[in-house]
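#struct-help
A.M.: can someone run this one for me? Single chain, 133 residues.
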Amino acid sequence: MDKVIRYGISIDKELQQQFDGYIHNKGYSNRSEAIRDLIREKIISEEHRDLQSQARGSISLVYDHHVPELSSKLTDIQHNFQGSIISSMHVHLDHHNCMEVIVVKGSIKELEQLSNALSIIKGVKTGKLTLIY
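D.P.: on it. Structure tokens below:
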């Protein structure tokens, strides 16, 4: 069994309260478990940052569908990256906003390029690439 090491940290009170809410919502029984999981997640994510590594994931976009030619621009970009796109889903959120979720695979570099190209178009409110290794 690995040796357990104890140490203390200093943290802003508001951040600590937010973290305690996170712990409660996730169902952790204590702060140590949550901190260990967050550290592991960060280390794994950094280990896989080789831009040539292959990954799978999704790109989530929220955009205003009333912006002229936005849908056409999004489609054109996706066609330029068709080898990386597995599937996509379009959802109408309300009168003005749509969400698109694009399931992707390929090199991290290529997926980041695709995500960035989609996210910077005028009318896109949020864009997020989530990778799974």
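A.M.: thanks! The helical segments are 13-26, 31-47, 70-80, 108-119.
D.P.: also worth noting: The two ends are 27 Å apart (CA to CA).
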